[in-house]
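#onboarding

Welcome to the new folks! Below is a worked example of what a typical request in this channel looks like: someone posts a single protein sequence, and someone else replies with the predicted structure as tokens. Don't worry about understanding the tokens yet, we'll cover that in week two.

Example request:
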Amino acid sequence: MASPSVLVVPPTVIDTSRNVGEQPGRLIDVFAPPRVDFSQRDGLVANAADYPMPGP
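Example response:
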């Protein structure tokens, strides 16, 4: 994909990414709804405190 681009991956598809360019790349993942396995890891999400997980 060229920059800037957006790719939507269905939740049942296993995916990965790799920067093949000479310049540094930036990948931003957006999960909706939030992924519990990501949000419960300390330090993984820089602004996790701004987005608390919803209650039961």
